[in-house]
Specification:
This protein is of the alpha+beta class. Among the domains are: 181 residues, Galactose-binding domain-like (Jelly Rolls); 222 residues, Rossmann fold, CATH 3.40.50; 61 residues, 2-Layer Sandwich (Alpha-Beta Plaits). Helix content is 27%, strand content 24%. Helix 1 runs antiparallel to helix 13, helix 16 runs antiparallel to helix 17 and helix 17 runs parallel beside helix 18. The longest helix is centred in the first third of the chain and has 25 residues. The chain is elongated. The protein starts with 9 loop residues before the first helix and ends with a helix. This is Alpha/beta fold hydrolase.
């Protein structure tokens, strides 16, 4: 398709973008004003008193807001907020529902917002009991419509923490007539401490059935995020959002609700808006520190146990089960809509699957929707919220059938405007709840038994994703590798053959494995992590939804006999295209989970005759209709789509921003600045240039900003201002030009039991690039390791390890090599060898940038130098020129003693030093010619005179002695 030309300057781009927004906003305004105006929404705030928690004498005050539609009585919805939020975080959704005709009650749960009390994680005797009393309050208001017989028309909905509350309330309060939980959990123990391994496949026939085995692996990253968000002291009127997507991020579009007026009505505590609540600090008064923060003692104790031991006790399992929907789902028989996210490393599709099976077994009607969001990808947008509203209206009023269907979204490849294409596949029922279960196709995997090392301390650890941010990588082949990495030697890998045609995976795959410990160093159990990659024909791989399945294999025979285990992989929705293949990776570490720290080696193999069982759910592909009667949703969707197109095009231009005049220049840094949260500026207004064939030393004291600069150069962190260009390409995270840079900055992380050559081969294989492009022999020749490359790394000296690290950075013969303190820990002979390695590499016409604080080493190794101090450039140029600028001079004379005496008699001359027939002195501005003339007049024969080239003196002169 033809390429849309974009304005080249920032001002022109912003002007064009503003014009697009204005034009489309005008169109939206015409659409939205052509029909009837939205119904006004009246709100009423109130604080409600709740009984004290068990074992406490203190009453709890719950902060509520009720939203009234134009006409009452009307069907009512309790709308619960997510963890870390409060009632204000669901205000847009509440207004939407009120505009549809519902009475909506929102509230801040115990420990959040302006409500008092402790967080009990939806304790049936606390948070759930509070919600029942809120129903009492609604019914007493006479604003809620009733059915024949007087039963109130009340439903409950909410996302995540609020979704679990809705299920718990539906299972304990018979007045709840319908429930619609979103991206929530079934069993909090399995959500936070999952175990995907068992002796046999799951018996359930549903497509995303998880194993839910006991003695799981602690999901420390997600759990830590939530505990920290609830461990701080509450502040009046303030709300936080640990569940980032619930702070307004959406997946369909970003339209909010319109219309309605806020305010307070009768029943509000007139002092509540300003006065601190019981248990909160007075203004200006510090709150006493408490490691448990706003959590109950039981919850705090459970988290402390998990965080310190990494394992879950029976007592903690019982607590987590008690506050989980799984404890009451056998009592839920009302119409239920389960909305679960396909991009969710916190609560995956297995949680929704278990809830569907349990409610269906109790006799309830269940409808299930999987959508492209989740805790990693956003809460439902307007179209899906409309479906939820339609379901609640139908379930409460009888106007239509809430249904038992199943639909899931399939995200395709990126279109030209950068937005993912999405289609929806629908079936009449969720497979396995009745009749035949989900179809499973057998995909053959190949690969021999392989050792997998768990290094001491489980470090470095594999990366399967970054909680809450994985959605950033979902649509970017460049960002995806940054969010999923497997250190060499730590994983076994098994591959399928390329697919002949597309296979649409919809659910949880299973595979049988054999796991054994090393008889020489036996361990009683293995904690492993299984991942299923989609691998393209060019070798690039993507981890769908950044999903990983942790599992524990206990009671391993000490003699090395393998134990059989069936692993259930996380539920995903992913079309595997023709020509692509699947790669099963089973690793020993993952940074998001609590991993044992004892080193060990495990042997992992496919069980005899085992194949990967892949779930497939055929259905009818359908489009998503626009919300009925809500043309604003269409207009805002168009607005956001066009704005996204412009921004995506600008981002593409920036990502491919090339200055042709710099195509042959290895590095240009201009106006670089990096300011961290809190205001600390690590680098400010840094500019310099590196030419081909140079060995440039980045010199400066500790804290000068050298490492920060190198991390920005490699795209690991983003500058606050300025730019970096490598061979004319502007550096950004995932920029293709980064493949032309070799680096060594964080330590090598070599596997000691393998040879140097094997380590290099594993490292290169992990990059996914063809082996013929590695240039192993050339890198090893330059590094000068000789036959030592075939020896085990554990027998290497420190100098050999450093040279192997340099060889690793040289793989692929990058045109620019970046090294941070490569001589750390080396003795003088090893430093000399390292110097030769770097100079040989630069002699090939390539460029080296070395960060160091060793002045003498930079002087002998580098051709050019950049001196940094407190984040700023203080000098740059050739090493010799910079050293000569110190103001010192050297004289070769016939009588050194007489020369020294003569120089001492000159005013201002200091730091006189005799070294053989050389006399060094700081002339303090006196011209060398004048000094020579003065020495001759004193009867001293001068054979030679020149600057004293010592970088240390120039460095101290530039940054001071107390840098």
């Amino acid at each position: 398709m033809p390429r849309i030309p974009l304005p080249r300057t920032r001002g022109a781009r912003l002007t064009a973008l503003a014009a697009v927004v204005v034009v489309v906003a005008a169109v939206v305004a015409v659409w939205t004003t052509s029909g009837s105006q939205p119904s006004p929404v009246r709100t009423q705030d109130a604080f409600l008193q709740m009984p004290a928690a068990p074992g406490s004498a203190e009453q709890v005050r719950i902060d509520t807001t009720t939203y009234y539609p134009e006409k009452t009585p009307a069907p009512a919805v309790l709308l619960a907020h997510g963890f870390g939020g409060d009632k204000s975080s669901v205000d847009p959704q509440a207004r939407e529902l009120a505009e549809r005709g519902f009475v909506v009650l929102t509230w801040s749960a115990r420990g959040f917002g302006r409500s008092t009390g402790k967080i009990g994680l939806n304790d049936p005797d606390a948070e759930v009991a509070d919600a029942s009393r809120l129903i009492d309050h609604l019914v007493a208001s006479h604003d809620v419509a009733t059915r024949a017989g007087g039963a109130p028309e009340i439903a409950v909905t909410g996302a995540s923490y609020g979704g679990a509350l809705s299920l718990l309330l539906a299972g304990t309060d018979k007045r709840v007539a319908a429930v619609a939980p979103v991206i929530t959990y079934n069993d909090l123990a399995q959500g936070l401490v999952p175990n995907a391994g068992a002796s046999a496949p799951p018996a359930a026939k549903t497509p995303a059935a998880g194993e839910f085995a006991p003695d799981g692996v602690f999901k420390k990253s997600w759990a830590g995020i939530f505990f920290s968000s609830g461990s701080g002291a509450p502040s009046a009127g303030a709300s936080s959002s640990a569940e980032a997507p619930e702070a307004g991020q959406e997946t369909d579009d970003n339209s909010g609700s319109v219309g309605g007026t806020g305010g307070t009505g009768g029943g509000t505590d007139p002092q509540a808006a300003t006065a601190p609540l019981p248990g909160q600090a007075q203004p200006g008064q510090a709150q006493a520190a408490d490691p448990c923060g706003r959590f109950t003692a039981q919850v705090c104790q459970a988290y402390t146990e998990l965080a310190t031991t990494g394992k879950v006790s029976a007592q903690t399992v019982a607590l987590l089960h008690r506050v989980s929907p799984a404890s009451v789902t056998d009592k839920i028989t009302v119409p239920t809509l389960l909305v679960q996210g396909e991009s969710d490393t916190l609560f995956g599709l297995d949680q929704s699957d278990a809830t569907a099976r349990q409610i269906a077994a109790a006799g309830g009607k269940v409808r299930t929707i999987w959508y492209t969001g989740g805790h990693d990808g956003g809460v439902p947008g307007p179209q899906l919220r409309t479906k939820i509203g339609d379901f609640l209206w139908s379930a409460l009023t009888g106007d239509g059938d809430p249904g038992t269907g199943f639909s899931y979204d399939v995200q395709g490849t990126l279109r030209a405007n950068g937005a993912p294409s999405v289609r929806t596949v629908s079936t009449d029922t969720y497979p396995g709840l009745a009749g035949a279960g989900a179809e499973r196709r057998q995909v053959a995997l190949a690969g021999p038994p392989q050792p997998a090392v768990r290094p001491a301390g489980a470090n470095p650890a594999a990366v399967s994703g970054i909680p809450g941010l994985n959605g950033l990588a979902a649509g970017s082949s460049r960002l995806a590798p940054l969010f999923s990495t497997d250190p060499p030697g730590q994983a076994a890998q098994f591959r399928s053959a390329p697919f002949d045609s597309q296979v649409l995976i919809a659910g949880s795959s299973t595979v049988r494995l054999q796991v054994a410990t090393d008889p020489a160093h036996p361990l009683p159990e293995a904690v492993l992590f299984a991942k299923l990659y989609d691998v393209g024909p060019d070798g690039t791989r993507v981890l769908p939804a950044n999903a990983v399945a942790p599992f524990r294999v206990a009671n391993l025979p000490a003699n090395g006999t393998p134990a059989d285990v069936t692993v259930t992989l996380p539920g995903i929705v992913r079309p595997i295209e023709a020509g692509h293949s699947l790669r099963l990776v089973v690793g020993t570490t993952d940074q998001s989970f609590s991993t044992p720290t004892a080193p060990g080696v495990f042997r992992i193999a496919l069980a005899s005759g085992s194949a990967l069982a892949v779930p497939v759910v055929p259905g009818t592909s359908v489009g998503t209709p626009a919300p009925k009667g809500q043309l604003i949703g269409i207009g805002v969707t168009l607005l956001v789509g066009i704005v996204a197109l412009v921004f995506a095009a600008i981002r593409r231009r920036r990502a491919h921003d090339v200055d042709p005049d710099l195509a042959d220049t290895p590095l240009v840094i201009k106006g670089l600045r990096k300011q961290y949260a809190g205001g600390f500026v690590a680098v400010k207004d840094l500019s310099f240039r590196v030419e081909p064939g140079q060995v440039l030393g980045l010199l400066g004291p500790n804290g000068a900003g050298k490492t920060t600069t190198l991390r920005m150069l490699m795209g690991l962190i983003t500058p606050t201002a300025g730019e970096i260009r490598v061979f004319g390409h502007k550096i950004a995270p995932g920029a293709p030009v980064l493949s032309r840079i070799g680096s060594f900055v964080e330590g090598s992380g070599f596997l000691p039991h393998l040879s140097g050559k094997a380590n290099l081969e594993l490292y290169w294989a992990a990059t996914g690039r063809p082996a013929e492009k590695a240039h192993f022999s050339e890198a090893l020749e330059i590094a000068g390791l000789g036959d030592a490359v075939n020896r085990r790394v554990k027998n290497y000296s420190q100098g050999m390890r450093q040279r192997l690290a340099i060889a690793q950075a040289m793989l692929g013969l990058p045109e620019l090599m970046v090294l941070d303190e490569p001589t750390n820990g080396l003795d003088p002979p090893q430093i000399h060898q390292m110097r030769e390695v770097l100079q040989r590499y630069a002699a090939t016409g390539r460029t080296v940038v070395v960060s160091s604080h060793l002045l003498a080493e930079v002087e002998q190794t580098c051709s050019h130098v950049v001196v940094m101090h407190r984040g700023m450039l203080v000098a740059s140029g050739e090493v010799g020129e910079l050293a000569a600028a110190s103001g010192e001079a050297t004289f070769r004379v016939g009588d050194p003693a007489a020369a020294a005496a003569a120089l001492k008699g000159f005013g201002g001359v200091t730091d006189i030093d005799v070294e053989g027939d050389l006399v060094h002195a700081n002339l303090d501005g006196m011209a060398r010619a004048d000094a020579v003339a003065a020495l001759v007049r004193a009867g001293v024969a001068v054979e030679q005179a020149g600057p004293r080239r010592r970088l240390e003196d120039a460095f101290l002169q530039l940054v001071g002695d107390n840098s």
